[in-house]
Amino acid sequence: MEVEHCLETHRAVVEAAVFGVPHSDWGEEVKAVVVVAAGGSVEVDALHAHCSARLAAFKVPTAWQIQAQPLPRNAAGKVLKNVLRGDADMRLVEE
Length: 95
Prior knowledge:
Blueprint: H1 2-8, E1 13-23, E2 27-36, H2 44-52, E3 63-67, H3 81-85
């Protein structure tokens, strides 16, 4: 939540999702999926600098995906991070 909130304070970012993904050397790395406003754009370097100035180094994403389409959500409005992660075959289990 802290990293997502930080990203969403950037003027070009509409919404963001952050989660861990496998990394061959580190075991896991932080990935951010960032949605920019229609017709807008932002560079990864600008997002990295924005986060680096506001977060501890280990919290700054090292993998990035910038897109214009909204994040996938379930009927309750929760971001489907399993879909973003590529685990689309995993079924959402309601608790």
